[in-house]
Queue: 2 jobs
Job 1
Amino acid sequence: MAAEESYPDDLRYHPEHDWARVERDTATLGITWYAQDALGEVVHYEPPEEGSSVAQGESYGEVESVKAVSEVISPLSGEVLEVNAKVVAEPETINEDPYGEGWLVRIRLSEPAEADALLDVEAYRAVVAEQ
Amino acid sequence: MQTLRRTPLYERHAALGARLVPFAGWEMPVQYAGIAEEHRAVRTRAGVFDVSHMGELRLAGEGARDYLQARLSNDLDRIGAGEAQYTLLTNDEGGIVDDLIAYRRGDDDFLLVVNAANVEADHRALPETEDVSDAWAYLAVQGPEALERLGLEVEPFTFRENVDVLGVRCLVAGTGYTGERGCELGCAPEDAPALWDAILARGIEPCGLGARDTLRLEVCYPLHGNDITPERTPIEAGLAWACALDKDFTGAAVLRRLRASGPAEKLVAFVMQDPGIPRTGMPITEGGVVTSGTLSPSLGVAIGLGYVPAALAEPETEITVDLRGRPRRARIVRKPFYKREEA
């Protein structure tokens, strides 16, 4: 069952429709409700390798629906600590719970100050409203 | 900027909250509830598709049969009045200009239902025909319960005209693009909204082009523009069964030689063994290219069609698909991926 539209106010957002939940020197990353809705039913998640590096503003994985492929843009730089195995096995989790069980990776931040440049929920809502 | 055309059902699609996308110059619904859900509705119950974007070419009068018999690949004499046939329009090189259904209304009276993107190319190749596309709206009602819910009976590849379907005068044909039982209904454009509403009132799910594509791919019906093109021949595409090579039609001599010598590549069906979904245009490492791919909603595995060197085109052969730089294994299988259970 697809989730209702929402944008939690405790997250930081990248304008490419990705979110980060920053906790000290680590962050959990995922795609926003808007991104999963635009994509439709997600049927495949191509994750990065654990231990690999991700860079702010660059692609670290792919999510695919029946019809389309979308690159996932990292809001922050760091090293991949963990890939969400549940989403690899059940990609539709992204549609069902984009900010909870549908998280994509957890990273150790290499540039924690980058988070300051991300959007807060009000600024991100403005991005969504322009689409 | 190109103006997109809209079918007589555009307002209905918009009101249902369909996701509308450009397709072959038309603004068409790609999905309503979701591709997988619509796909399952057609496999298990019944769904309706607006296919009014498809083109219709008419040719009637003395010599119509001779004219088309000399230009279409299949043998028109294998069908009589009230019967329909899958056939190909080929070019001088034997390439596939279009695939279409020919409806024979009489000895010298035919209606050709063609792909939306190819109406103009078809009309150029068949200048004697009349483009009557604007006179027709077309709905495909497909699924194991489709005919029962409509209260209709029609045998596969037959059709009847002037049939009252839920209060609307229709051409009823036992054809479709999903691998399920069902029918296609042709009616006047002004009657299409009433017919659509009456069909939905029978509990038949509205379905978009997304599900239409996954349904046809599971049963290995080729999509023109992807799996078959003017650069590919029916011999490579596995469509020799739709070519009467013992008669003359455009490109027939080329196709006879190609059949004797054997094509360099063949269109095969494959199932991914590694993670990932094959997509149109991805290279096949051993040679060739993916022409269609999706995650199969019925089977839960990633499937594709593609051209491979003829020597590799045997079931069980392993090939490698280049998924955006990542080599992923796939296994060639016998067509189709999915076959409906006979009632």
Job 2
Amino acid sequence: MINFQNITKVYNNKSVALEEVNLSIEPNEFVSIVGKNGAGKSTLIKLLIGEEKPSKGRLFFDSYEVNKLKLSELPEFRRKIGIVFQDFRLLSTKTAYENIAFALEVDGKSQSEIQEFVPQILDMVGLSDRAFNFPHELSGGEKQRVAIARALIHQPMLLIADEPTGNLDPLNSAEIVKLLVKINELGTTVVLVTHNKDIVNNLHKRVVSMDSGRIIRDEENGKYVLA
Amino acid sequence: MFTALFRIIKYGIQGFKRNSWLSVTTIVVMTLTLLVFIGLILFSVLTTDTIDLLKEKIDISVYFKNETSEDDILKIKRSLESLNEVKAIEYISRDAALSQFKERHKEDETISEAIDVLETNPLSASLNIKAKDPKDYPIITAYLTNENLKTQVEQVSYSQNQIVIDRLATIVDTVQKSGMVLILILSLVAVLVSLNAIMLAIHSTRDEISIMRLVGATNMFIRGPYIVQGIFYGLIAGILSILFIAPLIYFSAPYIKMVTPEINLWTYLMTNILSLTGYQILFGVLLGTISSIIAVRKYLKL
């Protein structure tokens, strides 16, 4: 489903963020991408969602050749992926309900569909009673759950979580990861980018390790080794 | 399609209400801009009317020798009327001149007695000429001081008032030209200030714009609500500007009247209140819309 072919990304002709990366991810997989800061994990994600273009190589997602997408084609493409960030990235002037509904409204879904699905997903992430609170009224863990709900509401094929637990305490972090695993079991491919050793080592799933822009290890039942 | 439009309007109203502090400050700035606009409009109305009145007051008189017959005078009047530069001519016969003089000085006993003592009418017949433009008086005068008319014309009053009339003509011209420049510059400044205010308002939401793009919103979906907000700002600012200028004019009209007694700015305002309100709202909405489009453009490229 996802295919990085010889991807290289260089910024300003000087700093090499990614070098000759080859990576394949199949549907329904749960892949953790790990590495220290500056390893190239976030760059990988930026290329995947079309926010940057690779300097060399080709990148495929489903039937899209992502590096060849035009600016006008990006909105439609982005609606096929759900993304969760470390800093939540919720719209501060909208309630939790409205933030999630926005993802559907953007897709042109009808009011009735929205009224049906949004409460369901709020229930799934355990936030039914916080539906009409604004982001600044929610805790970090709650905000992240809203973000996940928003990422999932249009039933994307792929859920990307870029350091989703970065701003959360250990308890909330564990809750979030549990949620991600549940989502994966329900059929969504999940790519988790993190540098949280404990989370990764407890998952017993595929781990792709990166360092200095290269993939140094790719194991099915992997562990995050600090060496 | 329709749903999308409805949602865009909904977001616009939402954004307007939920960012109320930002909305208020932006509206205040836009109202000030529109106050400048309408202030300039009223100012130019005032100056144009004043200038027109002054032009009206400027005229020259041609005095004819007593031997010149009325027919001849009227012939000259007709040929003068054919000149492009001439706006109006009034013929004042010797008798008419005398009765006008008596009327003007009826309070003054000395003069009234003096007139009665004189047996003949000392006053000449005259033509009172108004030109369309004060600059044209020299042309008319040249025509009148022509050799052909020397036997009939006693005196042309222009030469006495020439300096004053010329100076007045220059002042009128300068005021009109510099008025235009002033209006253009002030309008430009006001528009830029408004544009800046709106750009600031939108800049403060640039994170939201990038989030919306990540969720997959199209440019129109992102830009639309800001345009709707811009329209609201413009509409409200337009109405507020009229509400503020009205009492301002009402209270300052008496003072303005001291300078230009013939013009009542309050009356002008009231007579044209509907069209002026319409213009202000139109300017406001245009200003708000165009500013929003320019401001969002910057963040949509990111």
